Amino acid sequence: MTDERFAEAIEEIVAENPKYAADAYYFVSGALRHAFEARGEKGDSGPRHVSGGELLEAARDFALDEFGPMAVAVMNDWGIEGALDIGKIVFGMVEKGVLSASEKDSLDDFRRGFDFAGELAAPFIPTRRRFKSATTIDDERRATTSESRRDENLPS
Fold first, then answer.
1. Per-10-residue mean pLDDT for the chain, 156 residues long?
2. pTM of the model
3. Phi-psi region at 14: left, alpha or beta (left = phi > 0; alpha = psi -120 to 50)
4. pLDDT at residue 11, as a whole number
5. CA dihedral 61, 118, 105, 3 (to 10 degrees)
6. Taken in order 82, 87, 89, 92, is the CA torsion positive or negative?
């Protein structure tokens, strides 16, 4: 499919179902390329296939590579809130002939996917606190003050 025909098909899909931004469809297409490249397949070597699970993993990795800590915000802005949304985009593209699917492919492959937003956020969640919270600082200050007062009241 030519780039021009691909763009036209995406415009048609978005016009019929504006839930997802056009960029969401381009993202899924990029995630598919990412999946093929991860398997060592480059260029147009004829019909190729990835499972729903493989595509979700590729989409996660591609989103993290492209958008880093902003991945969840970008995906949400495009209407992608979870793994099932990736599947709906794929099958929307299948309906328009942009992609093909095997008889075994199903939207259920994406329903059983992982917590997409959680997977995108996980690498950026600190594993330990680096700074003390204001509450902790206040508690320490109170404890130090109490100890000082207690020490002052002790007979010498």
1. 90 95 97 89 71 93 96 96 95 93 92 86 82 65 66 61
2. 0.76
3. alpha
4. 96
5. -40
6. negative
pLDDT value at position 141? Answer: 74
- φ/ψ region of 125 (left if φ > 0, alpha if ψ in -120 to 50, else beta) reads beta
Domain range annotation of the chain: 3-126
Interatomic CA distance for residues 120 and 12, integer angstroms? 29
Residue 90 one-letter amino acid: V
Most distant CA atoms of the chain, gap in Å: 91
Plot region of 46 (φ>0 → left; ψ -120 to 50 → alpha; else → beta): left
CB 61 within 8 A of CB 50: no
Alpha-helix runs per DSSP H in the chain: 3-16, 22-38, 52-67, 71-77, 83-95, 108-111, 116-121, 134-153
How high is the pLDDT of residue 126? Answer: 84
Among the listed residues 116, 112, 6, the one whose alpha carbon sits nearest the alpha carbon of residue 51:
112
Take residue 95 and report the two structure tokens written for it: 């309906």
Q: What is the dihedral of CA 133, 138, 139, 143, to 10 degrees?
A: 140
